[in-house]
Design goal:
single chain; mainly alpha; Recoverin, domain 1; two-stranded antiparallel sheet; elongated; EF-hand-dom_pair; EF_Hand_1_Ca_BS
Length: 161
């Protein structure tokens, strides 16, 4: 299976895997896996995610290693998914003005104003509160990817089957 996918796609997938492996232990927890899948445009429910983790976890250690991920999502992986991930990272970087890997409230407000969408203090507070799921006061790439994925689905009125 791995031989079929170009090394460039595999490298991109490895980069994505590494970005979501928050503790850098070489494996993804259920939460890390959920964030990664959402960033790729896949929206599994809690039950689907639990079943997916059980099916993907070939060695039974409760986490997903890179080779397990590749084996599981390779059939659904296509060029468009990787392009979307790159575009998402590009958009994230446009908001992350100082390049530190996080979007602050000031960066969010500044970029939204530049895009012709100035925010009130209330709107800014609400956006930060919704996006900042771990409560550290900034938006990480994972949090950004989750919000953008969820917003797109809500905006288009799509439901997950």
């Amino acid at each position: 299976m791995m031989a079929k996918i170009q090394s460039e796609q595999l490298k991109q997938l490895k980069d994505i895997f590494d970005r979501f492996d928050m503790d850098q232990d070489g494996s993804l927890t259920q939460l890390e896996l959920a964030a990664l899948l959402r960033s790729l445009g896949l929206k599994p429910t809690g039950d689907q995610l639990h079943a997916m983790l059980a099916n993907m976890d070939a060695n039974g250690n409760g986490a997903i290693e890179f080779d397990e991920l590749v084996g599981a999502i390779l059939p659904d992986l296509n060029e468009q998914v990787l392009i979307n991930q790159d575009q998402l990272l590009e958009v994230f970087r446009s908001f992350d003005r100082d390049g530190n890997g996080y979007i602050t409230a000031a960066e969010l407000a500044g970029q939204m104003a530049k895009m012709g969408q100035p925010l009130t203090y209330r709107e800014l507070s609400d956006m930060m509160q919704e996006a900042d799921t771990n409560g550290d006061g900034v938006i990480s790439f994972n949090e950004f990817a989750n919000i953008l994925g969820r917003s797109g689905v809500e905006y288009l009125g799509l439901t997950v089957s």
